[in-house]
Amino acid sequence: xxxxxxxFAVLLSAAGAGFAATDNLRTVAEQSGFKRTGRYDEVIxxxxxFAKAWPDAVRCDEFGRTPEGRPMLALVATTxxxxxxxAAHEQGIPVSLFQGGIHAGEIDGKDAGFLLLRELLQGKAGxxxxxxxxxxFVPVFNVDGHERFAAWSRPNQRGPEQMGWRTTAQNYNxxxxxxxxxxxxxxxxxxxxxxxxxxxxxxxxxxxGAKFEHDVAIQVEPLYSGDEELRKLGRELRDDTIAQLSxxxxxxxxxxxxxxxxxxxxxxxxDAVAPPRFSTGYLPLRNRFGMLVETHSWKPYPxxxxxxxxxxxxxxxxxxxxxxxxxxxxxxxDERAATLGGTRVPLDYKASDKAxxxxxxxxxxxxxxxxxxxALMTRYDERKPQIWKVPLHDDVQPATLVEAPKxxxxxxxxxxxxxxxxxxxxxxSYQRLDAAHARLPLQSFRATATTFAERPSxxxxxxxxxxxxxxxxxxxxAGALYVPLAQARSRIAIALLEPQAPxxxxxxxxxxxxxxxxEYMEEYVAEDVAREQLKRDPALAAEFQRKLATxxxxxxxxxxxxxxxxxRHASWDxxxxxxxxxxxxxxPD
Length: 589
Description:
The longest helix is centred in the middle third of the chain and has 37 residues, at 301-337. Residues 4-21 have low confidence and may be disordered. The protein has 16 helices and 19 strands. The protein is of the alpha/beta class. Helix 1 crosses helix 3 (40-53), helix 5 crosses helix 10 and helix 13 packs across helix 16. The chain has helices at 6-15, 28-31, 40-53, 85-91, 108-122, 143-146, 184-196, 228-247, 279-282, 301-337, 413-426, 490-497, 523-536, 538-550, 552-556, 558-566; strands at 58-65, 71-77, 95-100, 134-138, 200-206, 216-221, 252-253, 269-270, 289-295, 344-351, 356-369, 376-393, 396-403, 408-411, 431-432, 437-452, 463-476, 481-484, 582-584.
């Protein structure tokens, strides 16, 4: 639950009745000339002070607690009077959510957001903007990581002097967690998102990578993915933000500037749609805009904070100009999403081989073998700006498509608790079956091949499945879940429950037990079974001989030869390699 904590009350009281709106609201960053950034107690303090200074315009809300017990804070700023989600939705007031510090070493967003918020409230910037919209600002998302504070937490970044850490106290990278929603912090963030339903969610970062002159990258989805009509508006949001930043003296690009090949600038760049573990891959599943802002890590901290501040202001101005129209189109997209059943739906995307040459503002560089690593290394000369003519692959197309079920998905009772928790976190609707259903027509997916990752990723053993959906009838017990696609968040249901989707529950290994063989036939028993089957079934005997004649791997693999017969025995586990979620054409009666 969002609440103002007792700590806030103490801070508000300490501020005193004579508190002036312009006093004591400058950050440690500002006071140090942007050499330093403050610790998290500064966020707690400033959140309370802003609420005290402008009680009719700012709320300081706690929307969760971290594993180490710290409050997760959001400042809600508006002079429209719509200071609750209910009021904003009822009055049709556009809402934008800006979050900083998902990677707590990339902390530009925190200091930029506080700086701009003060200017907005003082009337020094964006005069009147808060009269017509709600600005929700989360200064630090990864709070525990923020307090793992040290110099060199980001060795490839210029300033501040000390900063937080990339991952949480539980070593989660929150920017890999939007769809699988493992971390308590992400569960809290999705709760905040579900309540406010922002039309734009802006994720404030700092790049890794090479040295060049461009100082910020802006990516938006839907642009290549998601609802087709929203893509047009997403492109406008990206291009208009880039145009405004250019007028303000920045050198923005509309793609993440990471080379296709290692650190070789000549290889150029490829635009992409991030999978839904990332914010910009996730927001299109909600039919909302996700924006990724990446200032360039090699620019000085004061420069990066200024650019981030300008970006937030630019987006707020665009929301002021277009927010109500965007909201109307997003709600219409919700209606379109409820009709995806039975249609072809992309699961992921990739840039094609088609490329165009662009002029990219880099620096002179050399590529020579390193006496340290022995590898070919790139060294940049920042004294010598240079135009690179390099390829940009920005023809992004669907890579994997599936035909969505006409009705929805069925989750057996044994797996319902796991899946329901994920669906609840995303606000996906489902129904629980009170009665059992015998011989229900459905589609099942059996894995014909499974590949388990050798190393863990985000505390999971990722899994790749090959197979196909096939029609059959099965008994489905009471307590199963029916997840209909006739709902606004159908894309989230598909992304979670299609086994071959890149961030599905299956891909993250949540169902790995279904692909483990737990019952075996001893070899000497299998030998007897095989001989009995060969004697009884001439067609089977002929099939076995064909395998021996045509499949050298089969010939050399004793286990495969015995399994050939074991699979045809009554003792074989028919649930082995059966994906434990089914598809149906309509809701069970």
